[in-house]
Amino acid sequence: MPPRRIDKLEKEVLGHAGIHCVKFSPITRSVLIYYNPIEIELSEIIIRIGTALSIEYNMCSVYVENKKKYVGVNVIDNYALGALIAAWLGRSGLLPFNNITNLLEWNAGVSTLAAVVNHGISEVKFSGSPDPEVVTAVYLLNSILKKEFLVSSTITWISTFVRHLTGEEFDRISIQAFQAYSQEENRTYYDVAVKSEENLYHKSIIKIFGNLMRKYVGFRGSMKEPSLLNQMKRVSNKHGDALEGLKSKNDIIFLRLEC
């Protein structure tokens, strides 16, 4: 949703310390902002732009989306998946693999371990840090040493590669602002609701699986950048839930964060 009055948006956003230049391009429908990250965070700039647009469009919700790209699944990962399928078929007896069942399971375990290690190296090259799921390689290695690793290999492959099948993930929030003017105090109050718009799959399956990993594998925390909502929470905590207003420093923006 482009601003109806470009000059008004630029002026309101530019009013905060640390923001040096704001330019909106009608052609690309994008905002270019030069700012000092020491004085103001990008998350706060997003809040201020979202608030201004929401007010301009009669308090409608403004959606902010961050598309995160991941390293996709490659040949080694697919080979490990094929090895796992063959090993399970051999164990089930559906195919005449009984005489090489043990070999198939070793192949599945070693190939999965190699795929996870290779994936971790690729992630370091791509984003500077490995996915936290890569620590399951330790869990898998321990299982291989105990020679009980087919189930562990399957869990490790799923935990590491399922969310990378598309190569990207969407992080989405909505910003809806309401304003009220106080004549007695001569200031405008903004009530801004920031809500997570994660889809049902991300909220249920991914979180449930993450809890299982924490419980049984010992996986703790994430090395990736925080979600948009968590970035907004950090801004809210930093300012005590109240930010400077758009038109005047005397005005106040109150943040309401909804998961």
Structural features:
259 residues, alpha+beta, two-stranded antiparallel ribbon, 22% strand
What does the secondary structure layout of this molecule look like, with pairings?
Layout: H1 6-14, E1 19-25, E2 30-35, H2 42-56, E3 62-69, H3 75-92, H4 101-127, H5 136-145, H6 150-161, E4 168-182, E5 187-196, H7 200-216, H8 228-239, E6 242-244, E7 252-258
Parallel strand pairs: 5-7
Antiparallel strand pairs: 1-2, 3-4, 4-5, 6-7
The strand count comes to 7
Please compute the radius of gyration using only Cα atoms. Answer: 25 Å
Q: Point out poorly predicted stretches.
A: 200-208, 210-223
Helix percentage: 40-55%
Distance between the termini: 24 Å
Strand content: 15-25%
Return the average pLDDT rounded to an integer: 77
- Quaternary structure state of the chains depicted: single chain
Helix-and-strand structural type: alpha+beta
Individual helix count: 8
Name the helix and strand elements from N-terminus to C-terminus, one letter apiece.
HEEHEHHHHEEHHEE
**Biggest sheet statistics:** 5 strands, mixed
Spatial order of strands in the largest sheet: 3-4-5-7-6
Shape annotation = elongated
